[in-house]
Amino acid sequence: MKRLMKSAALAVSVSLFATTAFAENIRLTGSGASFPAPIYLTWFKDFSKNTAGVTVDYQSKGSGAGVQDFLNKTVDFAASDSAMKDEEIAKVGEGVQLLPMTAGEIVLAYNLPGNPKGLKLPRDVYSDIFLGKITQWNDPKIVAANPDLKLPATPITVVVRADSSGTTAVFTKHLSAINPAFKEALGEGNTVNWPATDKFIKSPKNDGITATVRQTPGAIGYIEYGFAKLAKVDFAALQNKAGQYVVPNAESGAEALAAVKMPENLVAWLPDPDGAKSYPITSYTWMIFRKDNGNPAKAKAMRDMIEYSLTEGQKIADSMGYIPLPPSVVEQVRKASANIQ
Amino acid sequence: MYRKQSMNTPFDIPDNPDSACRPPSAKDFLVDRIFRGLARIGVALILALVLALIFEIGRKALPGMEKHGLDVLFGTVWDVNQGKYGILPAIWGTLYSAFIALLIAGFFGVSMAIFLTQDFLPAKLAAVFRTIVELLAAIPSVVYGLWGIYVVIPAIRPLTAWLNSELGWIPFFGTSLSGPGLLPAALVLAIMILPTVAAVSQDALASVPMKTKQAAYGLGTTHWEAILKVMVPSAATGIFGSLVLGLGRALGETMALAMLVGNANTLSVSLFAPANTLAALLALNFPEAGPNEVEVLMYAALVLMFITLLVNVLGSLLMLYAQRGNK
Amino acid sequence: MTDLSQPVTALPSLQRRFEGRALRSLVLTSLAWIIAIVASVPLISVLYMLITKGGARLSLEVFTELPPTGFEMGGGFGNAMAGTFVMVGIAAAIAVPVGILAAVFLAELGPDSKLANAARFAAKMLTGLPSILAGVFAYALVVMTTGTYSAPAGGVALAVLMLPIVVLTAEEAMKMVPKIMKDAAYGMGCTRAQVIMKIILPTGLPAILTGVMLAVARAAGETAPLLFTALFSNYWIYHEGSLAVMNPTASLAVLIYNFSGMPFDNQLELAWAASLVLVIIVLLVNIVSRIFGKPKY
């Protein structure tokens, strides 16, 4: 009753237009990462359909924007591929619960005339492309790794993220781990200072990079595997730590996830996973909740949503281009979700 | 209630209590006062809105201005991690794209205005062309953006590739177009401001007195001599005003540019290089900005507001001057 | 080259000069035609793309369904249309009364007062305000204070953009009411309020409506102010029996922006269809306002 009065008072004070109070219908709003957005949106739509009185609305804006919304308290939960920085967590008085909900692989999508499949990129080559050091598709180093492909003498257009992005954070973390020059020049983070040349263009969100790569002959960009698969763009096989060329798929991703143990705080990074079959750029992605929501009904709706994602949700992960969480991690997440009150 | 007055009137006054044909009652005076008060409040609200806009944005920009000073205006690096915020490339891109758009739209807009006002076409056909140009203004910016991505960029790619390979030594063609870039953005921008330039120039030409034109013909000029040597100079201030107003629109345009300009923080004179503009910077970075970045973005918003305000004030003054000149 | 067989006229140089002038006139006239035709190309191209690409996807379904999530097929933008109507409605509810009252003052009550001059100047500056700044303003004013993205926040941002159009066009409309009509009313002893309510507003109504319609058309197409005020939503604003006003709200313009950047054909087709619908709405409003706006006196 108190909650109802509170919300009614809020509605009246907040706006003349809010004539109807939202008594029994709970709407959870979230925003953030575009990397897992397709699978999250599918989960939330199904969950909302199957759960009376609860609607989950998620907006894909980029991880940085999601965390910022969360800090500004304009959303109920957020999603981020780069988890959350300690100093950001410290700003939230209610406490923060990070939960890994799925995992994915970052692929290098490319657009070349004649759509040659099966491009292979060695570790030093793809890091140098994003460093702006390799600028032509027929660079001797690329040709050496791909003797069977006919590579054109066109410049490489590198498509990077315009927004603050967890995908960028994961990708640059990996590049910094494998290439000291990259670490020195650009470092890692949601946004980095990409080389200022006219061959680096910026696009918002995973969607934007995929669309720009598709539109631009000679382009390369980093996106989540599912986007590349569904948008039917070509992607490269990358050389992993063991020196093997690996294509992204559920097996190579699961192999990479198995290489790391999930710690107590549920934040694990795989900047350069071991294992001959591991895909080199694999990462968990997190949902971010407040521990104290001051609203038991909302908190329960959140826990229900998490439970649905952990059970029904994981079943569709593979088909959408994501990696299902390992069973041990599912158990850890389920336990931790009890902290959301 | 209407009361029959002692006044003898020859007119047939309707016996209608709502009629205005009666001396106002005390209630009417009260209504009058309230109404006038409301109107005054309405006017005050406009002023309050402008002040609130400046105050709200200025207040949020102040910490950024104190912290970074002029470094923001002249810095070329935008790196949130290192706390480096420079908007010079965005300012450059805003001005450069707007001026190129103005060059194109100015040429086409003024030509169209001459074509439509100087008796080249039967009135009905002129109206058709006029409507076509006016309808350009009705299409939303975001639709132009979509059209630009899927029509303009593929259409100009072969031409830009040729210009780059053949005339690459000219700085304007110094790089090849990868996709989004300054030229497609400026082209779409030109289309968007064309209606403003054309409409205002038409007004300026139409307001040149008929006598002036007839006097020119009387001196034995050809149609075009009359136009170029008499009509256009007479309407020059108004035409110039139309260009300035078009520039004002181009500077503040957001969505189409955010979708087409490439959002790269580079300083380049090449038409084919990706660039950035202040409005696009705001649209893309504002949603994710932390407190430190918001201060700088508000600073950038203030810079944008200042530039557009300056240009619009100039345009309005020119129009005012042109109107006086014709009286 | 001169033709020697022709008889030499008295003033050959003058005649040649005259021919040059006529030729230049002809060239310039052809050029003017070419320019006019080139200038018509963009509109025709835009409409062609909208009709072929957008028209192909148009069906009843797109008006009733929710936007597709991620990799889903089908779907529509019914909720975005509803959201656009709601937010433009909120904006009009704010901007039209304030705008008309202000215009009354500018046109009738104190046209030359300092207050009026300042307000007129302010309104002119507002018409040139970059729309993104209206969004920044509404974000700071409404989103930050209410703590949520919402339809009213979007409505406030749009109202900022509508207000100057309504004020300036309504002022012009009221000024066009013939002075003799006003004088006749004043002569009969009407109060100013009576003159305004019974003479000026009814007479100027068609032109005032034109201004309102133009403002509505502009607001319906705006994207930038909604990006961080209303955001977007994948659900209807009226959902499961309650009106979700204080929640993120979908709009056609933001849907087009979001989907135009997507690599999936389904979403791209919907972006074109939504563009077609948006342009039809905007053009209809424009055309209706033109019909209304024809001066009848």
Automatic annotation (TrEMBL), chain A:
Domain of life: Bacteria
Gene Ontology terms, MF aspect: phosphate ion binding
Gene3D superfamilies, alphabetized: Periplasmic binding protein-like II
GO terms classed as biological process: phosphate ion transmembrane transport
Transport is among the record's keywords: yes
CDD domains membership: PBP2_PstS
Pfam families to which the protein is assigned, alphabetical: PBP_like_2
UniProt keywords, alphabetically: Phosphate transport, Signal, Transport
Annotated signal sequence range: 1-23
Domain PBP, residue spans: 27-310
GO CC list: ATP-binding cassette (ABC) transporter complex
Family listed: Belongs to the PstS family.
Quaternary state and interactors: The complex is composed of two ATP-binding proteins (PstB), two transmembrane proteins (PstC and PstA) and a solute-binding protein (PstS).
Known function: Part of the ABC transporter complex PstSACB involved in phosphate import.
Protein name per the record: Phosphate-binding protein PstS
Source organism of the structure: Pseudomonas putida
Automatic annotation (TrEMBL), chain C:
Membrane topology label: Multi-pass membrane protein
Domain ABC transmembrane type-1 as annotated: residue spans: 81-289
Keywords: Cell membrane, Membrane, Phosphate transport, Transmembrane, Transmembrane helix, Transport
Transmembrane segments: 26-51, 85-109, 121-142, 154-174, 195-216, 236-258, 270-292
GO molecular function, one term: phosphate transmembrane transporter activity
GO annotation terms (biological process): phosphate ion transmembrane transport
Family membership noted in the UniProt record: Belongs to the binding-protein-dependent transport system permease family. CysTW subfamily.
Protein name: Phosphate transport system permease protein PstA
Species per Swiss-Prot/TrEMBL record: Pseudomonas putida
